[in-house]
């Protein structure tokens, strides 16, 4: 049995079409200010920012179910924390798994392909580079004197910008989550050694990163690919895979990992119900089995066609 004093993290998996419709229910249960509730719902799907006690989270789940919103709650002490992910500078995609090496080339971690739970990739937008420009110079004294003799005013030089902004290309990143034990690895496009590519090695990190990502996705064929990963590989519109920061990518990866588990558990519960197995509830999560069955009947394809 779960401890009645446990705190829970509420996870919403659906976009909210009309935040105003859900506002009274959530405000009444949580006591949160209406403006804060509407702003958070407008950004959903996501994880409710504060842990909640069990009675509160059950009321929220019941209310969300009435509105047809897919959600579940995780015990706070079991909620998967992917941050900080371990940054990888050297790795190789081999036949049996992913080998991660240290800075001196020594093997530090081995991940069999069937142990990779999720691959979540994206591009991190970078701030424009600011370059200083030489300060403007005053007109030559000789030229000014000649213009004065001709009864003409000195002609000022055109103003020159003291700095200019140079746009920088987004940088690719991928979060790799392994299970048993759960560890999150982070590969940054321009911080990675791609020597394992051999003859496929290109001149720039921007060219090598997609090759590495492709090797990773093909080899870990049982891993869940986040929608942003597929969008990046398929070169869709950047809005589907660009993130404002590395932390934003981590938060997105956490939510997509939870969604993959929710989908997997929904499939398992629906299968048990079809076999006549009695309904059950996980001690670590709170979710409605009927809702999982209804969701499963609608098919996974509709959800996964949505890039984000």
In short:
This protein is α+β, with helices and mostly antiparallel strands.
Structure description:
By secondary structure, this protein is an alpha+beta fold. It has three domains: 7-80 and 260-304, no CATH class; 86-126 and 169-248, PH-domain like (Roll); 131-165, no CATH class. The protein has helices at residues 19-30, 34-43, 54-66, 141-149, 205-219, 227-233, 246-274, 289-298, 301-304; strands at 7-12, 46-47, 52-53, 71-75, 86-88, 90-93, 97-101, 107-112, 116-124, 129-132, 163-166, 171-178, 183-188, 224-225, 242-243, 285-286. The protein starts with 6 loop residues before the first strand and ends with a helix. The relative contact order is 0.15.
Keywords:
alpha+beta; PH-domain like; six-stranded mixed beta sheet; five-stranded antiparallel beta sheet; 9 helices; 23% strand
Layout of helices and strands, plus pairs?
Layout: E1 7-12, H1 19-30, H2 34-43, E2 46-47, E3 52-53, H3 54-66, E4 71-75, E5 86-88, E6 90-93, E7 97-101, E8 107-112, E9 116-124, E10 129-132, H4 141-149, E11 163-166, E12 171-178, E13 183-188, H5 205-219, E14 224-225, H6 227-233, E15 242-243, H7 246-274, E16 285-286, H8 289-298, H9 301-304
Parallel strand pairs: 5-13, 9-14, 9-15
Antiparallel strand pairs: 1-2, 1-3, 1-4, 4-16, 6-7, 7-8, 9-12, 10-11, 12-13
């Amino acid at each position: 049995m779960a401890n009645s004093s446990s705190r829970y993290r509420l996870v919403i998996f659906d976009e909210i079409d009309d935040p105003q419709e859900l506002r009274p229910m959530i405000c009444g249960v949580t006591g949160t200010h209406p403006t804060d509730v509407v702003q958070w719902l407008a950004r959903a799907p996501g994880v409710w920012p504060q842990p909640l006690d069990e009675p509160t989270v059950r009321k929220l789940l019941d209310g969300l179910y009435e509105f047809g919103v897919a959600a579940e709650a995780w015990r706070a002490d079991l909620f998967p924390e992917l941050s900080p992910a371990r940054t990888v500078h050297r790795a190789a995609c081999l036949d049996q798994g992913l080998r991660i090496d240290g800075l001196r080339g020594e093997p530090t971690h081995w991940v069999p392909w069937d142990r990779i739970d999720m691959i979540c990739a994206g591009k991190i937008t970078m701030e424009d580079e600011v370059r200083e420009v030489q300060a403007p110079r005053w007109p030559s004294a000789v030229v000014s004197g000649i213009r004065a003799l001709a009864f003409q005013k000195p002609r000022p030089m055109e103003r020159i910008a003291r700095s200019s902004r140079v746009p920088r290309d987004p940088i690719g990143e991928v979060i790799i989550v392994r299970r048993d034990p759960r560890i999150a690895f982070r590969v940054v496009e321009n911080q990675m050694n791609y020597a394992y590519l051999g003859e496929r090695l290109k001149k720039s990190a921007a060219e090598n990163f997609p090759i590495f990502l492709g090797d990773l996705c093909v080899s870990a064929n049982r891993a869940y690919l986040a929608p942003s990963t597929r969008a990046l590989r398929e070169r869709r519109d950047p809005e589907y895979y660009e993130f404002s920061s590395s932390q934003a990518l981590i938060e997105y990866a956490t939510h997509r990992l939870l969604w993959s588990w929710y989908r997997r558990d929904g499939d398992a519960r629906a299968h048990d119900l079809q076999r006549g197995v009695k309904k059950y509830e996980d001690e670590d999560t709170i979710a409605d089995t009927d809702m999982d069955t209804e969701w499963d009947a609608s098919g996974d394809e509709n959800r996964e066609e949505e890039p984000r």
